[in-house]
Specification:
Layout lengths: L25 E7 L4 E6 L6 E5 L1 H6 L4 H12 L2
Antiparallel strand pairs: 1-2, 2-3
Length: 78
Amino acid sequence: MNITLNTPKKIVLQEEKSKTVSTLTVSRVVDLPKQKMVRCFCEEISEPITLWEGAAYDAIGQWTDADVEVRLTELYNS
């Protein structure tokens, strides 16, 4: 049986979880050159954070710990 809706509806498949933190503790950073992606793992967040991917990955080149700190600041202080 198919039911056609008048307009498309957004269906939440997994409830959003949130947490308030004042610091991020980086446990590891992984460079995935084949996927053109750098991911960061923080103790406070259960999912990895994508720092750079695609064209941004190419543009960052050889990133440093300081670049990771700047990027996390850009992502979470905006």
